[in-house]
Structures are given as structure tokens and as C-alpha cells.
Specification:
By secondary structure, this protein is mainly alpha-helical. The chain has helices at residues 2-7, 39-50, 54-66, 74-86, 90-102, 110-122, 126-138, 146-158, 162-193, 201-213, 217-229, 233-245, 249-261, 269-281, 285-297, 305-318, 321-333, 336-348, 353-362.
Length: 369
């Protein structure tokens, strides 16, 4: 529940457009030395691969791809890479992705290539991270996205891949500090969500902090949320205030939450209401709902069912059946005069009452009379 409440501090931000093109072939894991494999070693690899050894399966696939000790065969390379990849071998996953990218040994399919790159990158494979970044940069196999491209280049660079290091430097030269902050935020989100990277809140905080210290307000709010989740309220307040000073609606909502619940500050409902109201006016969904609740209950402000209805309705229009149901509950408690005043405000804001009725009804409410 706390995670849901805290997440409402954030507003979704659109991805920036991608520019340019990174013309490069995808890369498999680099081999420090290439030694010709004797027949005896190939025979041993075959036995171990047949017995289920994923490393041997990958190595055998590599031998077939390059023709090292066996006749060169992209088809056989793909077979052995797949067997090892399905066992979770990151190098095999990346190498299979490369074959799909190039159409060697398998039908060319860049979307499938990206799927395998993603699996390998999640395990920390530096080459796969670079390949995934290049796919995002060029919009091949996945939608173009400069921010995610830069993020994967940074991760590849940090993992020691020379191509990733070059690409990260190029991205910084092309896009500057603001784009770097956005990429840091993207990495923080990946670690926080645990989808493209293993979930790790410490690493999420570390990447968010880089961007937050660079003035990125989304990172500041995200760092505040993570700090709140571990009850570090001084840290939470600091980042909420930083975001609020930059007029981020999530920063306002965050401060409202702290004052409403007395976390790291003296509990003050009026102060909470004032912060929430600023966030609500900035279209922050969580703040909208909080303002509606406080108007409904007379918490930090006088009871005003008309305003409570309106803010629930605004929140419901943006996202959420629950808010529309709450609007209907407030409507049911209104006097005739309160409802007439509310109807007047709705009309002044350009709403047609029959459309309001349809929205409430679609959420499972009773029609507004």
C-alpha cells in the first residue's frame, strides 16, 4: 500500500526523441586469445555439451560459428547457443542474439535478437548491454529511445566493455548533462523495478542520487520515495524540498504526505493541505486525491463537499475508477444547494453534465440526477 501511495508522487514523463544512427555490428563476447581446438578437445567438449554442461555448449557453439576445430556451421552454432542460452548462459544468450540480428544460422529477426540481448544484459553481460543500447539508439528490433540507449551504454561501459565506453562518451557529447541525468534515472528505475535488471534498491538509490545531485527533479522525488520506504525521513524531506523548490508537483505532494502523517516533521494538517493543493494544481494524481479527501473530511481545511467532488472527479478523469466512485459517494452526501453549486462549477469549466453522468455511471456509480 505504501509503495502505491508513494509512487503517486511521480508523473509519467515522455521519452525524448532519438537522433543519429550508431552504425555498428552487434558484438559477441570478446575472446582474449583464439587457440585452435584439437580434435581431442572438440570430442571432450561434445561429450560435456551432450551431458548438459552449459559452458561446454556455449564453447562448442563458438567453435562451430568460427570453424575452429570443426567445419564452420552457423546452423550448428545456433543450435548449441540456444541450448546453452535456455539454461541461462549469458554469453550464449548474447551470441544467439547476434545470430538473430545477422540472420546467420537462424532466420533474421532483430526483435528476437533484442529479446536475447535483454536476457544476457540482465545477467550483467557487457557485450549484450552494448548491443541492447545500439538497438535502442538505432530503433532496430525495438523502438528508438535515446535515454535507454545511453543508459545501456553507461552500464556496458561500467562493466568494462570498450565499445560501451566509446558509445557512452559519444552520447554525452551529443546530448549533454541533462541527457546523462535522464539516463541515470532510467538505470535507477531498472534496478528499482527489477525487470530489465535484478531488483536492487541500493543500486537504484545510487543511480538516482547521481541524477538528483545534478538537479533532476524526477530523480529527487524517486530518491525521496526510496528513502521514505526505509524510514529515513530526514533524507526524504531533503529531496522532497529540493523537488518542490524546482516546482515539481511530486515534490509538493511528497511534502504534503510528510506533514499529513508527521514523518520527519511535526504533524500539521493545514501545512499538508497547502502542499497537496500545489501538487494537485500541478496535476499530480496523488495530490488530487489527497486534496479531495481533506476537503471531504475537513482535514487541514473546512469541509467542502463541492471541492471534494471536483478533485475526485479530476483524479478519476486522469486515471482511476476508484476516484470516480468516491466522487459519487460525496455526491450522495451533498445537499441540493451544494450539488447546484458543483454543477455551476462544472459548467464554468466546460463540462457537460450528461458527460459527467456518463463517466460516473461507467465507473459503476449511480447516475447523477
Amino acid at each position: 500500500m505504501l509503495v502505491t501511495i508513494l509512487a503517486s508522487f511521480l508523473l509519467a514523463t515522455p521519452d525524448g526523441p532519438a537522433t543519429g544512427s550508431l552504425q555498428t555490428a552487434p558484438q559477441a563476447a570478446a575472446e582474449s586469445t583464439i587457440t585452435k581446438l584439437p580434435h581431442a578437445e572438440i570430442s571432450d567438449l561434445q561429450k560435456r555439451a551432450d551431458s548438459g554442461d552449459a559452458i561446454a555448449q556455449f564453447t562448442l557453439g563458438k567453435a562451430y560459428e568460427s570453424g575452429n576445430g570443426v567445419p564452420q556451421s552457423p546452423d550448428q552454432a545456433a543450435i548449441w547457443y540456444r541450448i546453452a542460452a535456455e539454461q541461462g548462459n549469458a554469453r550464449a544468450q548474447n551470441s544467439l542474439g547476434v545470430l538473430y540480428w545477422l540472420g546467420e544460422g537462424v532466420e533474421k529477426d532483430k526483435t528476437e535478437a533484442v529479446r536475447w540481448y535483454r536476457k544476457a544484459a540482465r545477467q550483467g553481460d557487457a557485450s549484450a548491454m552494448f548491443n541492447l543500447g545500439a538497438a535502442y539508439y538505432n530503433g532496430e528490433g525495438v523502438g528508438r529511445n535515446d535515454t535507454l540507449a545511453y543508459a545501456w551504454f553507461l552500464l556496458s561501459s561500467e562493466a568494462g566493455d570498450p565499445s560501451g565506453q566509446d558509445a557512452a562518451k559519444r552520447s554525452q557529447g551529443e546530448h549533454g548533462q541533462a541527457a546523462l541525468n535522464d539516463a541515470w534515472v532510467a538505470i535507477g528505475q531498472m534496478y528499482e523495478k527489477g525487470e530489465d535488471l535484478p531488483q536492487n534498491m541500493d543500486l537504484a538509490s545510487a543511480w538516482y542520487r547521481k541524477a538528483a545531485e545534478g538537479g533532476n527533479t524526477e530523480a529527487q522525488v524517486s530518491l525521496a520515495i526510496l528513502s521514505m520506504s526505509v524510514k529515513n525521513y530526514n533524507e526524504t524531506r531533503h529531496w522532497c524540498e529540493m523537488a518542490a523548490k524546482a516546482r515539481h508537483s511530486g515534490g509538493y505532494s511528497c511534502l504534503g504526505y510528510l506533514y499529513r502523517h508527521g514523518l520527519g516533521v511535526e504533524q500539521n494538517s493545514q501545512e499538508a493541505f497547502n502542499w497537496y493543493l500545489q501538487g494537485a494544481r500541478g496535476s499530480n494524481l496523488g495530490a488530487m486525491r489527497a486534496v479531495a479527501q481533506m476537503y471531504e473530511k475537513g482535514e487541514g481545511t473546512k469541509i467542502d463537499r463541492s471541492e471534494a467532488f471536483l478533485w475526485y472527479f479530476y483524479a478519476g478523469r486522469r486515471r482511476g475508477k476508484e476516484s470516480l466512485l468516491e466522487a459519487q459517494e460525496v455526491r450522495s452526501a451533498m445537499t441540493e444547494k451544494e450539488w447546484k453549486d458543483t454543477q455551476k462549477k462544472l459548467r464554468q469549466q466546460g463540462y457537460k453534465l450528461n458527460e459527467v453522468d456518463e463517466m460516473l455511471h461507467s465507473a459503476g456509480s449511480q447516475p447523477v440526477q
